[in-house]
Amino acid sequence: MDPVRAERLSKKYGNFEAVKGVSFRVGKGELYALLGPNGAGKTTTIKMLSTLLKPTSGDGYVMGYSVVREPKEVRKVIGVVPQDLTADDELTGLYNVYLQARLYGYSSSEAMERAKRALEIVGLTESAERRVSTYSGGMRRRLEIAMSLVHDPPVLFLDEPTLGLDVQTRRTIWDLIREFQKEGRSLILTTHYMEEAETLASRVGIIDLGVLKAEGTPEELKSKLRGDRLYVELYSDEDANALVREMTIAGLEVKGDSSQIVVSMQSEEVLRKVIGLLNGKRVRSINIVKPNLEEVFIEITGRRLREESFDAFRQRVFMRKVR
Ligand SMILES: Nc1ncnc2c1ncn2[C@@H]1O[C@H](COP(=O)(O)OP(=O)(O)O)[C@@H](O)[C@H]1O
Ligand SMILES: [Mg+2]
Predict the structure, then answer these.
(1) What is the β-pairing status of strands 4-13 and 186-191?
(2) Counting atoms of ligand 1 from 1, which one is nearest the CA of 207?
(3) pLDDT at position 314 over 60
C-alpha cells in the first residue's frame, strides 16, 4: 500500500477551480516533488492532503486513512511544514516545539524530551532557549521542521521548504530532507526551484494551473526531450515571430516566447538549418543548453517556471554554459 494517494483531488475557491482532479501516489521512503510556478495549486493540494482544507471533490489517503472521512487519523501520521510559518516569535524555540508535542497529547516530561530530540535533529540545540524573534530565516525553517517531527510521523509534507533562503542554508535543509528519506519516511515537497526537484526528488509531478501535466523521475522527464535546446534571442517580437514561421516551414521543432525562441536540437542538421535562417538577421544571443527540468516545464507548458526578468534568465543560461 502506498503511504500517500491523491485521487482526483479538486478544489474550488468560489467559482475558481484552483486544483483540477489531481492524482498521484507516493511510496514508502520516496520523495515526491510537486514542481510548478506560483499559483499552480501546490499549497492547495498539500492543504487538502494534510486535512487543512476540504476537497471540493475527490479524496486523498494517507497510510490508508481518508482525508475527507478520517481527518483525525490522518493528522496523527503526518508532519506538516507549512509555507506560512507558524512558530510563535515571542516564545523560545524549545517552547514552541514543546507546545506542539503537548498538542499531540504527550505528557509534559515526554513532550519536553521529544522537543529536545527534534531540535537536536535539526541542529538547533544551541539556540533552543532563544526567542524565535532572534532566529534567522534558515533557523526558523529548521524550527518548523522540528515542530513537524515531534510525533515521529511516517509521512511529511513540506510546502516550499527553502523559499527565500540563500544557497548555503538551502543546502543544509536539503541534507535534513535526505536524512528523513533515508529513515524510510515518505515525503511530499512543493517547490518552484527546479534544482530542488532535480536534486532531491525520486519522482517529480509537474503542476500548472491546477493540473498535473507530467510525472516521472527527473531522468524520465528529461529523456522525453529529444536533444539539447537551442535558444535564439532577437531584438524584437516581430522579428522573432517571423523567424518562428520560417523555422516551422523548414521543419524545425520550435517554440517562441516573446523575442526568445527555443529549438529542439534533435539532429546535427538542426544547427545547420538555424544558422542558414539567421543569415542576415540581427541576432542578440544564441545559447545551447542541456535539458533540465526547467526545459521540460517550458516544453510542456510553453512558459517558464519563474517569472524572472529576461536578463536574469539569460544570465542563468549563460552561467550554465560556462560551468
Ligand atoms: N483562499 C483562497 N481564495 C481564493 N483563491 C485562492 C485561495 N488560495 C489560493 N487561491 C488561488 O488558487 C490558486 C492556487 O493557489 P496555491 O495553491 O496557493 O498555489 P501555489 O502554492 O502553487 O502557488 C492561485 O490562483 C491562488 O490565487
Ligand atoms: Mg504555495
Answers:
(1) unpaired
(2) 22
(3) no
Q: Is 205 in the pocket of ligand 1 (CB under 6 A)?
A: no
Radius of gyration of the chain (CA): 23
Q: Which domains does the chain have, with CATH numbers?
A: 4-217 (3.40.50.300), 225-322 (3.30.70.120)
The closest alpha carbon to 271, from 282, 284, 287, 290, belongs to 287
Asked if residue 5 lies in contact with residue 25, where contact means CB atoms within 8 angstroms, the answer is yes
CA-CA-CA-CA dihedral for 173, 177, 183, 189, to nearest 10: 150
Tell me the backbone φ, ψ of residue 107, rounded to 5 degrees: -65, 165
Question: Ligand 1: which of 11, 13, 157, 305 to mutate, most ligand atoms within 8 Å of CB?
Answer: 13
pTM of the model: 0.84
C-alpha cell at 220: 524520465
The ligand 1 atom at the shortest distance from the C-alpha of residue 14 is: 4
Residue-wise pLDDT for 215-234, tens only, equals 999 989 988 777 888 999 99
Residue found under cell 517558464: 304
Ligand 1 centroid to Cα of residue 261, in Å, is 30
What are the backbone dihedrals phi and psi of residue 30, each rounded to the nearest 5 degrees, phi first?
-100, 150
34 Cβ inside 6 Å of ligand 1:
no
Eight-class DSSP state of 252: -
Give 16: exposed, middle or buried? Use CB within 10 Å, 0-12, 13-18, 19+: exposed
pLDDT in tens, 36-64: 999 999 999 999 999 999 999 999 999 99
Mean pLDDT rounded to a whole number for the chain: 91
The C-alpha cell that represents 218 in the structure block: 527527473
Residue bearing the CA closest to ligand 1, atom 7: 13
The pLDDT value given to residue 307: 57
- Taking the CA of residue 11 as reference, the ligand 1 atom at the shortest distance is 12
pLDDT digits (tens, 9 = 90+) for 254-272: 887 677 888 988 888 899 9
Cell of 67: 482525508
The phi and psi torsions of 101 (rounded to 5 degrees) equal: -65, -40
Angstrom distance (rounded) from CA 289 to CA 284: 16
